[in-house]
Amino acid sequence: QASRGLLPLAPRSLPLAxxxxxxxxxxxxxxLLTTRCLAPSGIDGLPLSLQAATFVSIFAGLxxxxxxxxxxxxxxxxxxxxxxxxxxWKKTWPLLGLVYVLAGVAHFTAKDAxxxxxxxxxxxxxxxxxxxxxxxxxxxxxxxxxxGSGLLLGGILHALGKDKLPGSMKGVKxxxxxxxxxxxxxxxxxxxxxxxxxxxxxxxxxxxxIPVSFHAVRGLLQVVLxxxxxxxxxxxxxEKSK
Length: 242
Known about the structure:
Elements: E1 23-29, E2 32-37, H1 48-80, H2 85-90, H3 96-109, H4 111-115, H5 133-160, H6 172-197, H7 212-233, H8 235-241
Antiparallel strand pairs: 1-2
């Protein structure tokens, strides 16, 4: 006997919950098929090969956008602004560490919200990362707290003057920024999963369905965030050369 809410070969005309969106057959495990609502993007209704292509394309777009913004775009902005304005603005970038500290704490105070956006095994036909969702939510939370704290500490130390810092402390900001850069890349699949499969963060994210426009804006903001982190991590050589 089929369990409640899981019907073998459920017809398309009987969705599990009322929704104005279309529904598609969905494999629920143990040979059972049910129906589910498509995400607003509709990506989860595509063949897995196209879902995988979408995943890779989003990553490539984020990488290209970051390369352009952190390189020629920031250089052009620095030349266009009055002398000293860009460098003064750059000194505020370590304040991003506070955002990461708060986000890392939320991994534990609102754990269910982060578990809800962790991609299940097999998502996009290519997601087979070992380890449970609980494990990955926990370690990324700890990493965000540590990395954010390091970035804040490094910013404060550099504000006090590099000449006064012991050699072991001079690289704190740069190392923390680089670590947070790669950490942000590592957690990007969760954001992509929200776009492609309509996952939400109960209690933290926007209520109800998240429109595609929200994901577009967040994608642009992520490019800015990655560019700022890369700019801080790559800043040691340029600062020494000045």
